[in-house]
Design goal:
Helix content: 55-70%
Oligomer: single chain
Number of strands: 9
Number of helices: 45
Shape: rod-shaped
């Protein structure tokens, strides 16, 4: 080929010369010979020049690349391989389509990725996959296996490279669920792993995967509204785990999961399946599924507890009467009675109180049912002999009334009842027991004198009259006593004394009865000798305070307030628990205050009412004075308000009725509380309302004014006249009652800013219905009337509030 080329070149240059005359064939031979000679000369020259290097080598390369391209490229590829440029060498061989040489060069140079691509190009799939793996390109190897219908090989590659998610996807396509689930679990996809285990029929592993999934999610998700600590998705996983554990027979594990995660509905269902009925009921109750809870208790043979549970369900549904019926069946007679009372079913309420042996509340309920005879019987059984006796009096059962009123130490009323029963002897005995401080003392003395006169015992009559009139001037309240005494003195022949008495009566009221005639007649009968004087003296001495250190053993501190500490204590003499209030105020610094302390304490001790905490004793303990009172187990209404937030309307009616009855009783005894507030109102464990600290506010008032001139009280509930330091009467209690009830009904006092004292004096009270829309209008009427600034515009008496309270019976 090279010779022919050079021959053509020679022919072009020699044409037109001697050769033109030669035959064509000879000319061709000549040209071939010339070309061969030229080729030999040129190649020899090239070899010579190559050995010398420099620019001549470049020239040679150019010559070979231009006239001998393929040979030159092969030579170049081998030269690249020789200098370890395997990638360049391989690419050169690929351009020459020398595939085997290219693969060998790539392999020798560990250019496995390039080799894999070439194998893939040549459809040598298995070799390509091997080369991809050698190049650590597992993704490409696996994808090539997938694209060429080698899924198992692809799955193995993904698994080997720790790409468990993709490996699992392939195994899922191959329906190898067990293997897929294992890989999903290793990848942390517990939900999908659990679902795949279920497809594989491996229930236990599925349950464990669900459990692990929701446990790992805790703390990384937003909690559900139910407070489980899990997201909705995690909660579903927990339920699924519990369900599968149950299928494997591990129901206890199911219950444990649901209980721990507060999935009470599911926990209850599993407990029911395991026949753990009591636990099932407890869980159903937590989700307010009271009927289901009751069913569980019935299945467990807990019929009483089941009835109580149905009662709770009825309360939740607003069916108070039905709830009361269920509580009655459950033996919770107090709650049943309270609910019946709120529903106005007073006879049913009373019957329940009787079953609970709560006779005093039963009596109140019978009174509201207008059954006074049963009420009297209940008061008697409840040892409230005063009320029982008064009711028997009203029922004209005077003998019974006298008997009970005597036990209650209401000697005047007892004596009057005995007299009405025709038993004058009994009446004499009882009326003689009426003490001088009693408001009926003078009347008792009058009747005693008449009874003694009727029996001819004039000396006894005179003695009684003299005791009654000692140091008492003749006036409208005592004139009758003096007249009867003068009459008795005359009948025993002491005419001078009688004349003196009648004259004194005449000086007060000359027209009184027949005084003028008696004076005229006695003046004719007696001598002019001056009558002997009548000397009467008397002094009431307060008993000395008892030594509390010897009598009381302090057990527990149960409270602390503005007046001092309150302890639960043991009365070592009477062997009973008491609440012992040790006053911290320095009342001993002023004898006047000490005297006031004993006076007020004795007045408080005279109160005997089921809704008032009874005062037992007063005295001194070390340097401090104490008051011993009835120990009441329960909570005050400020504590209850923290739990309930505010009272329901039926609770408001119930509380108001009892407080008004207590205040009416105390006010009739001329005793004012002065510090009514939620912390002084108790709800006992038996459901009774108790008002505490009667009269103690006045003791504190005296002490504070002695020390600083300040007026004590609780600002949120103080009446305007208290704030101004004016004289107060029972209407200040009505204002404080209104403020306390307002707080309990609405959730805050009527005034509760820093300007509370100013607001009590000058600002209008917001109607309760403006603050709480679900209240009836009757609440506004009662609250606003109690909280009038001027005392005369308030209710005149606490008992009057009950009339307006009747409006709630129609709601």
């Amino acid at each position: 080929m090279f010779a022919l080329a050079f021959a053509d070149l020679g022919r072009m240059h020699l044409r037109g010369g001697i050769l033109d005359e030669m035959p064509e064939g000879v000319i061709l031979v000549v040209y071939v010979i010339i070309g061969v000679v030229a080729y030999y000369v040129i190649t020899t020259s090239i070899r010579s020049l190559r050995g010398r290097g420099g620019g001549r080598a470049t020239l040679i390369d150019w010559f070979q690349r231009t006239f001998f391209k393929n040979a030159w490229e092969v030579q170049q590829a081998r030269r690249l391989a020789a200098v370890h440029n395997y990638l360049g060498a391989g690419e050169a061989f690929e351009r020459l389509e020398m595939w085997e040489d290219a693969i060998k060069v790539y392999t020798d140079g560990r250019e496995y990725a390039a080799a894999a691509v070439l194998h893939e190009k040549l459809k040598q799939i298995d070799k390509a996959i091997i080369c991809y793996l050698q190049a650590r390109d597992h993704e490409s190897a696996a994808n090539l296996a997938l694209s060429t219908n080698r899924p198992l090989r692809a799955a193995e590659i993904f698994e080997h490279s720790s790409n468990w998610d993709k490996a699992a996807e392939v195994y899922l396509q191959l329906q190898n669920y067990e293997k897929a689930a294992e890989l999903l679990e290793r990848s942390g996809a517990h939900l999908k792993a659990a679902q795949t285990y279920e497809k594989a029929g491996n229930v236990l592993k599925a349950a464990k995967a669900y459990e692990k999934g929701y446990e790992e999610s805790r703390g990384f998700t937003t909690a559900t509204a139910g407070g489980t600590g899990l997201s909705k998705e995690s909660a579903r996983m927990a339920v699924a785990a519990a369900t599968l554990y149950d299928r494997t027979g591990e129901t206890a594990k199911s219950i444990e999961i649901c209980t721990r995660e507060k999935l009470y509905k599911e926990a209850a269902q599993f407990c029911a399946k395991a026949k753990r009925y009591k636990d099932a009921a407890k869980h159903f109750a937590k989700i307010s599924s009271f009927d289901k809870a009751a069913e569980m208790l019935e299945l467990g043979g807990e019929s009483t507890a089941a009835a109580a549970m149905r009662a709770e369900g009825a309360i939740a549904a607003g069916k108070q009467a039905e709830a009361a019926s269920w509580f009655e069946k459950a033996g919770d007679f107090v709650r049943a009675a309270e609910l019946y009372e709120w529903e106005g079913m007073y006879r049913e309420s009373a019957a329940c109180f009787v079953k609970n042996e709560s006779f005093l509340p039963a009596a109140e309920a019978y009174l509201r049912a207008n059954d006074r005879e049963m009420a009297a019987s209940m008061y008697e059984r409840g040892n409230d002999f005063l009320k029982a006796g008064n009711l028997y009096n009203e029922l004209k059962n005077f003998a019974k009334a006298a008997e009970l009123l005597e036990i209650a130490s209401s000697f005047f009323d007892a004596g009057m009842a005995a007299r009405d029963a025709g038993d004058d002897e009994k009446a004499l005995v009882l009326l003689q027991k009426v003490p001088p401080p009693d408001e009926h003392y003078l009347t008792a003395c009058t009747i005693l004198g008449k009874l003694f006169v009727a029996k001819g015992q004039f000396d006894l009559a005179i003695d009684r009259y003299m005791k009654a009139t000692a140091d008492q001037p003749i006036q409208s309240g005592t004139i009758e006593l003096y007249y009867l005494m003068a009459e008795a003195v005359e009948k025993v022949g002491r005419k001078r004394e009688a004349l003196t008495l009648f004259k004194k009566i005449g000086q007060e009221d000359y027209s009184y009865r027949d005084v003028r005639e008696r004076i005229r007649r006695l003046e004719e009968e007696v001598s002019k000798a001056p009558p002997p004087g009548m000397k009467t003296t008397g002094q009431i001495v307060a008993p000395a305070a008892s030594d509390g250190l010897e009598r009381y053993e302090l057990l527990d501190k149960i409270g602390e307030g503005g007046m001092g500490m309150v302890y639960k204590a043991q009365d070592k003499i009477l062997k009973r628990l008491v609440a012992l209030k040790i006053l911290s105020h320095p009342i001993h610094s002023d004898q006047k205050v000490v005297d006031q302390f004993f006076t007020e304490a004795r007045s408080a001790a005279a109160l005997n009412h089921p809704n008032i905490v009874t005062v037992f004793d007063v005295g001194r303990m070390g340097k401090n004075y104490f008051i011993s009172m009835e120990y009441v187990e329960g909570e005050d209404f400020m504590m209850l308000l923290e739990k309930w937030k505010r009272l329901t309307v039926p609770q408001f009616v119930f509380l108001t009725r009892h407080l008004c009855q207590a205040l009416d009783y105390a006010h009739k005894q001329k005793i004012i509380h002065r510090d009514i507030k939620p912390t002084n109102i108790m709800l006992t464990k038996s459901g009774q309302i108790k008002l505490m600290d009667f009269g103690l506010a006045k003791i504190l008032d005296e002490s504070e004014q002695t020390q600083s001139g300040a007026v004590s009280g609780t600002p949120y509930y103080m009446s305007p006249e208290q704030i101004q330091g004016k004289k107060v009467d029972h209407r200040t209690d009505i204002y404080s009652l209104g403020a306390s009830l307002y707080h309990l009904l609405v959730g805050h006092p009527p005034f509760h800013s820093e300007r509370v004292l100013y607001q009590h004096l000058f600002e209008k009270v917001p109607p309760p219905t403006q603050v709480r829309e679900d209240l009836p209008a009757a609440c506004d009427k009662i609250m606003l009337k109690c909280l009038q600034k001027e005392p005369e515009r308030r209710y005149k008496n606490a008992i009057d509030i009950l009339e307006d309270l009747k409006a709630f019976d129609k709601l």
